[in-house]
Amino acid sequence: MDIEFITIDQWDDALWRQMEPVYREAFPSGAKPEGILHSMLNRRIAYMHAGLNPQGQVIAMAVTGVVGQAEDKILIIDYLAVAKAQRGAGTGTWFLEQIRAWAVQEHEVRGIIIEAESGTSDTHKERIHFWERSGFVLTSYVHQYIWVPEPYQALLLPLDGPGNVADDGEALFRYINAFHSKAYRKG
After folding, report:
1. Closest CA to 18 of 66, 62, 65, 56
2. Ranges in the chain, pLDDT < 70
3. Three-state SS across the chain?
4. What is the set of domains in the chain, with CATH numbers?
5. Residue 96 and residue 80 in contact, taking contact as beta carbons nearer than 8 Å
């Protein structure tokens, strides 16, 4: 694919202005406000990734963070979005592979976790299917946050073994919740 992959760990207003339409299109509700994302990068607890087409336009974006210690390091994909016009062309699969390679090379992670809305609509099924096609294992535990109405399930992409989750997936939410707690913490 003729796409440039970039990762930043400091806020870049110009790049964000290009990423934001892709982010808002994919996450019209439930997305973190710009101020929180800005703070996450400034505090060095998150990264932003972008896929740029040959004209330099953002066609894919992601927000990630690394949690855990040495042998227990996990990459959390907080958000990953592909511009609507690019969906179904392999862009998301390519972009995810770039993030995976970056996470292994830069942080030696042992797995990647994503949470997805739990539901039975075609949209929910399509999202889950994308992650499973990409090697992620869907767990059965359904997590209900107190601040958002929809329930979520965790998916794990194991990078260092068979991918057995010790429980029904509830343990994965410890990583997710640790990341969210740091994201919303002041200072």
Report:
1. 56
2. 161-167, 187
3. CCCEEEEECCCCHHHHHHHHHHHHHHCCCCCCCHHHHHHHHHCCCCEEEEEECCCCCEEEEEEEEEECCHHHCEEEEEEEEECHHHCCCCHHHHHHHHHHHHHHHHHCCCEEEEEEECCCCHHHHHHHHHHHHCCCEEEEEEECCCCCCCCEEEEEEECCCCCCCCCCCCCHHHHHHHHHHHHHCCC
4. 4-184 (3.40.630.30)
5. yes
- Nearest CA among 87, 89, 15 for reference residue 47: 15
Q: What is the per-residue pLDDT for 7?
A: 98
What pLDDT does 151 receive?
A: 84
Q: Are 43 and 82 in contact (CB under 8 A)?
A: no
